[in-house]
Amino acid sequence: METKRFEVESSESNIDWTGKKVTGAHNGTIDIKTGELTVQDGNLSGGNFIIDTTSIKILDITDPDTNQQFAGHLFSADFFSTENFPEASFVITTTDHLESDSYLINGDLTIKGITHGVTFGAQVAISGNKITASGKVVVDRTRYEMKFRSGNFFTNLGDTLIYNEFELDVQLTAFASL
């Protein structure tokens, strides 16, 4: 059995996020600090990465003051509490190679010090000393103590309701450790 480790290249990796509410959606990016992917006998077998929650950016709000106000709210205890939890993490627990470049990934997502299992499909291309991987993770924010304007915890929100699930579209590029 041959095992190879690949270091995630943060400058070529990122997360696009989308949060939805009754009246529309917001989107942006989050940086990946570090990470590692493991390949065993030619297939992805494990890995992890660290997410820099202090790097959250909002792309759809162009007014600088409104953007800054919204970012401050995302950094607050209502959402990511970045002062106390400047990092989130994901650790692969199992992989199931389905076919070609398709995998089913199971792992532990930790946000605000709270860990829950998540499962998602991913496309993983392994070519020599390089891996590119992408997948969309749907996260129920209320499981990570982000209850602000959630219909599960508050009533009569009307058009101020924020849906519980947000999406993380993860793109990783990693190179073999030499």
Automatic annotation (TrEMBL):
Listed Pfam families: YceI
Boundaries of every Lipid/polyisoprenoid-binding YceI-like domain copy: 5-175
InterPro entries with a match to the protein in the record: Lipid/polyisoprenoid-bd_YceI, TTHA0802/YceI-like_sf
PANTHER family: PROTEIN YCEI (PTHR34406)
Name of the protein this chain belongs to: Lipid-binding protein
